User: Fold this.
Amino acid sequence: MRKILFSTALSLSLASAPLLTGPAIAQARLQPGGSVQGDLSRGDSQLDSGEFIDVYEVQGRAGQPLSVVMRSDDFDAYLMIRGPGDFEEDNDDSGDDGTNAGLDVRLPADGTYRITATSYEPGESGRYSLSMSGGAGAGRGGAGAYAQASGAGRGPQNGGGGTLQPGRSASGALAQGDRTLAAGEFVDDWELQVRRGQTYTVSLDASDFDAYLMVRGPGGLSEDNDDDPGQRGGRNSRLTFTAATDGVVTVAATSFGSNETGRYQILAEQGGRAPYAGNGRPPQQAYQRPPRQAEGSIQVGQTVNGALGDGDRQLDSGEYINTYTLRGRRGQQLDLRLSSSAFDPYVAIQGPGLSEFNDDDPDGDGALDSRLFVTLPQDGDYQITATSYASGEAGAYRLGVFPADGRASQGRPRQDSYVEERGQRQDVRGGSISIGDTVGGALQSGDEQLDSGEYVDTFTFTGRRGERVAAELTSSAFDAYIILTTPSGEQLDNDDGEDGTNSRLDTVLQEEGEYQVMVTSYAAGETGSYRFSVVPSQGSQRQASVQGGPRVFAIMVGISEYGDVASDLPYTDEDAEKLAETLQRGGVLNPSSVVLTNAEATVGGVRRAFEQVSRQAGPDDMFLFFFSGHGSQEDAQTSAQEPDGRTESIVLRDGEITDQEMARLFNGLNTRLSLLVLDSCFSGGFARNVVDRPGVMGLFSSEEDLTSAVADKFEAGGYLSHFLRAGLAGAGDVDGDGMVTAGELATYLRRQFVAEVENVEAETQEGQRNYQNLVIDRGGVQVDDVVLRLASRGSNAGSH
Assistant:
């Protein structure tokens, strides 16, 4: 359900909305100072995590205060606002009674803002009221300002943070109850009012944990920093940025490792020397971008002599600089050398898509000369700057620019990466890590390079077949790219994760042995700091939300003894009993499930079972209706639902249930996934009637006009019954990750039918002969949607 909230203007758009499923309907209007009554209910759009939502849009102005209050007696209210420049604020509790929600914000820019009314827990429903006023000023809206950085769409209300005033130090503490990132780091959110074009420096000092800073704000501002560049070997964090527009930025004080806690001091100051864009590890003397004018030009292969001294331009920190312009080509590899016997040389280059600097030649055996290998990412003019490491140093120097001739690896620095362990940083020796490690590192000039010019750091880990892992690379400095190579040499690549610039590769390992991961960038020559991890995975977001344990609510019906109704069948009653035993043995069958065989399998018995089981199965559960027995066809009026003019049914002990009635029974379900399995003649005709809504999948032993055979060779009433038991017991888990997905189950069943049922004859009611063919209709169920988690394979029973 999508509603429209009026301010001075309004618009309706589904672009950039929260992650939705379901219809989007404009329903109500609200003028500032007014309120609207609404309700969350089934049929509304939903977040991926299952909460129903109503979305309102308001056209806002930069600096405009806005106050929104959501109240409900039926559920725990939750508010979210999203807007231009990645602006986002969430609120769980408004501070009155702990269940209402309120947002007081000052809008950072002109544009359309989306206000989402939802609940704290998935599946909550009921009435609510929503009111909007001009606002009481720029206040905090709550947690959730870092969904892009953390990968967590929402979290509990933050326990710390506040407002930063430039020049005034503030104190805080990371502790239990704070908002957490997806990897488990606690976060305090601080707000800082900024002005366009003004440079700001934020420092985070902590003795109890390894400090880490993140800044997000209007105009696309997104900066991270691990270490203070002025404290070599220290664990404090300092970050300098320039505001792209007026507004409020959010500064996240957090830690490098998960679950770290302790006290800290945070300080925001105007001014500071912004580091070279794109590099998260600047040297101690941060290099400020020089003016575009240069002392002259230089060409590849040329060496110039110069001198630093009085009259030259200077950095804010006092170093003299001379700048030369180089006309470069995309992909060109250069070797920059700056030498002097009068001062400690420092060379830098900046241009289209490139910002690099270097203090000492890594091959200089302790000498102070500076050397830098770079690959130019684009055609254009580049500024090469000759300066000194310390302020005020002067004297003659010699600057040369030479073709690298493929020697970019010469003198490259040791791969700059480390893993956090028990509060201490351990260098990654030889690039070897373990599953579960999070690594900090940097791509930099002089690293190994791909043939196409991208810098690369390489890590290895040992994996086992069937392990599901996620390799994730995040960076605010470059567009992340991951290349995973298996022990047998197969290569898997990933460019973009969920936010479009970071990279996430989720896969099930198919081999035992050593895997190699190359951490690199999408474009040639990109540099900067990154965080990289290989961790156990529960799959995609949709898969990770599926609970394990006894979550299969099943009605299993099998009839062998039909009395006077129809001829008896062998094994069909055992099909239902064996399926129940298989699911129970696997730890996935809910005790509320029902087995009906022979005389118990009446029309009334099936209807009562639906009422009983569907009442207990909820939106986190899977529902299964299984039938093995006779199927029938009757003439009916030709329609869109019955284009062949026949109604299909399953034959019970005292009557029949038609495909239309089965559709009505399934329509009353409120489950994550509903599975209809019919091993009976003409069963494929149920697909068109029942598999017509989201979350319903059908498996049928034959096409709608053909009979199904008894599987005597397997001592089973039907082939589908026999293969289904094996598939749900684990044979359908093709990749071995402990989950049977809809795509895996469908593939397994099709392969078994091809191998075993290919030549089994079938016929129509008119005696036309053909062969029995499996019918699978997934409808809106995706191939990666989980049918069930296999508790026996170590899945997290009962967990999300």
Observations:
- Residues 358 and 460 are 28 Å apart (CA to CA).
